[in-house]
Structure formats: C-alpha cells, structure tokens
Amino acid sequence: MKKYVCDICGYVYDPEEGDDAGGIDAGIEFKDLPEDWICPVCGVGKDEFSEE
Asked: 15: how many CB neighbours lie within 10 A of its CB?
C-alpha cells in the first residue's frame, strides 16, 4: 500500500495504520479516504498530499 505525505507539514498517511483520530480504520487506501478528510496535524485537504 502506498503512503502519502502532506506537502505542508510532512505528516505521512500510512494505510496500514489508518488515522485513529479521524476515524479511519487501518487498511483504507488514500484514494478511498472521504473527500472531506483532512490532515490530522495541520488541517489541509487531500489535494495537499503527494505520493511518498
């Protein structure tokens, strides 16, 4: 599974870990995250992430 990094703060979304704070279970690919999902560190949207 591909990881994605926030271009603003450097947070890495790892689908093997998910985002507990955001209610995202482990195993959810970045492309399958809800469109309104935001970076749990700085609050930007998915469009500010790049494939690692």
From this structure: 20
pTM for the structure as a whole = 0.93
Residue listed under structure tokens 């809800």 = 34
Handedness of CA 8, 34, 31, 18 (dihedral sign): positive
| Tens digit of each residue's pLDDT (9 = 90 or more) over 28-45 | 999 999 999 999 999 999
- CA angle centred on 38, ends 51 and 9, rounded to 5°: 60
> What are the backbone dihedrals phi and psi of residue 19, each rounded to the nearest 5 degrees, phi first?
-140, 90
